[in-house]
TrEMBL record:
Organism: Cannabis sativa
Domain Purple acid phosphatase C-terminal, chain residue ranges per copy: 244-303
Domain Calcineurin-like phosphoesterase: 27-219
Cofactors, names only: Zn(2+)
Signal peptide (UniProt feature, chain positions): 1-15
GO molecular function: hydrolase activity
Gene that this sequence comes from: LOC115709616
Protein name: Acid phosphatase
InterPro entries documented for this protein: Calcineurin-like_PHP (IPR004843), Metallo-depent_PP-like (IPR029052), MPP_PAP (IPR041792), PAPs_C (IPR025733)
UniProt superkingdom: Eukaryota
Gene3D superfamilies: 3.60.21.10
Keywords: Glycoprotein, Signal
Length: 328
């Protein structure tokens, strides 16, 4: 009998449990931590996709953060990604150059946490776990076509053996796909500038099931999408040919929440302005359950299922198969 495998994705939490902070910018973090610890026996691995401690150069904040997540990280694989508050600093090699890391430049994060990267200063890596293949990108280094990371992302996605790893997951900190966050909406981009320009063809070509992002401090689920067009109108159950990647913003781990744009794009399936996290359950090679849970009560507020056979992954759809002719 195939075993069940459980995962969840979270972003950014840390706060004083004794209430000693006069002003906390991460008001939901303790609820998130407590919910995860309460149900920890039902998880196999944890992914925290950037902006972990929000220390911004103050090492005492890292001490507080690691103490808070110790009940989780000491018993389960705790996989991390690089965010702007771990990495960004002028003239440090970051793709973006604000002062967000407080001068950490990624050094603290890569020292505190191990990731199976070829070069840990470049925080992109692949992780195989059960029926899942994870490709974790680093949005604080260049991801565009022609870059070192782009070549790695394609190699990672292409290496998935979909007979053994039917569920292919992409994750990164900044939103490289879709978000109706007010800042993105105001810019008219609905993602990082140039975010999805090159990557969407890779997600489509290699049939990525779900792409997860943080950075924006709320929750939003996007329809199965390709080139800004929903390719499936279903909301709760997806089956048959894989055509388009489902995008999810899961940034409500604890930091003060972000507002949405007043414009609701047609591709936005579900939005929630609250703290929460996501859980994935693979029952077998053809059945996957997605659940979004609120941190305040641990209850499920959004969910969907995917039912797909191996032949459905292999089927050709737009931009997913190499062109062929009678000549070749």
């Amino acid at each position: 009998m195939l075993r069940c495998v459980f995962f969840f994705f979270i972003m950014c939490f840390q706060a004083e449990r004794d209430g000693s902070n006069e002003y906390s910018i991460e008001p939901g973090s303790l609820n998130t931590t407590d919910q995860l610890v309460r149900d920890l026996k039902n998880y196999d691995i944890v992914f925290h996709i950037g902006d972990m401690a929000y220390a911004d150069g103050y090492l005492a904040e890292w001490d507080q953060f690691t103490e808070q997540v110790e009940p989780i990280a000491s018993t389960k694989p705790y996989m991390v990604a690089s965010g702007n508050h771990e990495r960004d600093w002028p003239d440090s090699g970051s793709f973006f150059t604000p002062l967000d890391s407080g001068g950490e430049c990624g050094v603290v994060a890569e020292t505190m946490y191990y990731v199976p990267a070829e070069n840990r200063a470049k925080f992109w890596y692949s992780a195989d776990y059960g029926m899942f293949k994870f490709c974790i990108a680093d949005t604080e280094h260049d991801w565009r076509k022609g870059s070192e990371q782009y070549e790695w992302i394609e190699k990672c996605l292409a290496s998935a053996d979909r007979r053994k790893q039917p569920w292919l997951i992409f994750a990164a900190h900044r939103v490289l796909g879709y978000s109706s966050n007010s800042w993105y909406g105001g810019e008219g981009t609905f993602s990082e500038p140039e975010g999805k320009d090159d990557l969407q063809k890779l997600w489509q070509k290699y049939r990525v099931d779900i792409a997860f992002f943080g950075h924006v401090h709320n929750y939003e689920r996007i329809c199965p999408i390709y080139q800004s067009q929903c390719v499936n109108t279903e909301k709760s159950q997806y089956s048959g040919v894989q055509n388009g990647t489902i995008h999810v913003v899961v940034g409500g781990g604890g930091r003060s929440l972000s507002d949405y744009s007043s414009l609701i794009p047609v591709w936005s399936v579900y939005r929630d302005h609250d703290f929460g996290f996501v859980k994935l359950t693979a029952f077998n090679h053809s059945s996957l359950l997605f659940e979004y849970k609120k941190s305040r009560d641990g209850e499920v507020y959004d969910s969907f299922t995917i039912y797909r056979e191996y032949k459905d992954v292999l089927a050709c759809v737009h931009d997913s198969c190499e062109p062929t002719t009678l000549a070749n």
